[in-house]
Design brief:
4-stranded mixed sheet, 3 domains, Hypothetical protein af1432, alpha+beta
Length: about 475
Amino acid sequence: MKLPYDDAHLIADPLYGYLRITLSRPGEVAEPDIIDNPWVQRLKRIHQLQSSWWVFPGAEHSRFAHSLGAMHLAGRLARQVYPTLREVEPGTPSLPLVEETLRLAGLLHDVGHGPFSHFCDEHYLQPAFGLDHEQLSQHLILNELGELIAALRRSPSGPFADGEAVDPWHVAYLVRAVPAAEAAGTAPIPRWVRLLHRALSGAVTVDNLDYVRRDAHFCGVGLGPIDVDRLIYYTFCTDDGLTFHKRALSSLRAFLNARFYMYENVYFHRVGHAIDLHLGEIFRPTMEQVLPRSPLDDLSSYRRLTEWSLFTTVEAWLDEPLHSPRRELAEEWQAIIHRHVKYSVVYEHHVERQQPLPAARDLTADEFHAAVVRHLPPHLRGLEFRVGIASQDPRPVNPFAGPKRIAVYDPATDRIEEQLLTGILEFVPAKAHLYRVFAIGREHERELALAARAALSEVEPQSSVNL
């Protein structure tokens, strides 16, 4: 007797109950062969939250768990939009192939991350090698995992049509919807893939639909309702790509506000921000020791590099001679690991704007620091302090055009109507800034706070709304 249990396996997940993956058979490549690949398994040793796990004790979840969640949502989305995708683009292949292409993009979108995730991008990979994790993910999908991907022949929904196979270039394109894939001499990305690019490269994606809920769950943060089921149910495909039906608007607004709440209260937490500042002082010199060459030139070293390996390496440097560069780095790492945070917040100011200011640009950290120095009493202008500006776009600055476009369909007019979106976005700021001043100790907290307030009064207009 053939049973459905012969084709799929269950993985328990705290958000979704059970995730289904295809079950390996003798002589066949299936999803476990990719999930169990060392490149994917290394994500178990990289925290989902780069520094927030030092602040929220329960936030020990990994990039691996998030990637499985994104894979699951991507499959659900594929099954939901497939009928309309096929109607808009008759050349669309079978449902199992579309489903598997999207599932793999969800699974592998973060496979290129280094230790501390986005922090590694910003503080080492980009300045040292001009790379980010998405470019590395694309490289790994095409070169390290491409053969396995191309050998798959079914999704949890069933087998592909005869002659079909997942194209690794399509998976790579969905991870980073840029024309670089086409510039490499490959066949043009088909229209059905382009129509799906917002699944992972938009304002509301399977990526952030998973991480907002997952991060809140493990941090113990209470959010309002995030109705992922409704958002997916009311998503379909038009000539514009992935589109929301107007009945999704209330859930869309709730999700954008929940994501904003997580940025303010978790991702930009004051202690996490202070740890990031301290970490920024030692991260690049540490990485220059453990990964001196570009990951593209030394993939084996990069594959072994995780947060676990990094902590083990820097702890071993405690045995180096006193005052040696490695010993000094190791001591700073020990301070961070044991939460002996170098900096404390002495001033904090929130600003939100409904629309970007015309002919204006955001204040840089260097400009903010210089302005604070100018407003300090003369005898304190040599005081050591740091500033941080945490900026967030709670909604796209331009939700009606570009890669972050949010298309909303009105059945009354049978058209995508911009005014429907305008109504809910009035309640979601376009830009939010969190200005902070950090000091070593609190001896001059009052002077720094007054100077920061005066500095911001020069650049922030009176119409700004404090959160």
